[in-house]
């Protein structure tokens, strides 16, 4: 029974710590745009033009 005197406060402390971490994540905007990262990977970026040529994926001839 005396073990519960140690385990209950530790469990309450860890639960409160998890709640504070979750509230911090909400406040810092971690959950604002859930679909953005999932859709961003599907978009074609044309920012890397140096590796592209007119022949598609074939390497440039020397």
UniProtKB/TrEMBL annotation:
One Pfam family named in its UniProt record: FixS
Keyword Membrane part of the UniProt annotation: yes
Domain of life: Bacteria
Keyword Nuclease found: no
Transmembrane segments: 6-26
Family annotation (InterPro entries): Cyt_oxidase_maturation_cbb3
Record keywords, A-Z: Membrane, Transmembrane, Transmembrane helix
PANTHER family reported for this sequence: FIXS PROTEIN
Protein name: Cbb3-type cytochrome oxidase assembly protein CcoS
Organism phylogeny: Bacteria, Pseudomonadati, Pseudomonadota, Alphaproteobacteria, Iodidimonadales
């Amino acid at each position: 029974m005396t073990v519960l005197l140690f385990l209950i406060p530790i469990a309450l402390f860890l639960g409160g710590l998890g709640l504070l971490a979750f509230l911090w994540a909400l406040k810092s905007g971690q959950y604002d745009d859930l679909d953005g990262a999932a859709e961003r990977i599907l978009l074609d970026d044309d920012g890397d033009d140096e590796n592209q040529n007119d022949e598609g994926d074939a390497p440039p001839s020397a």
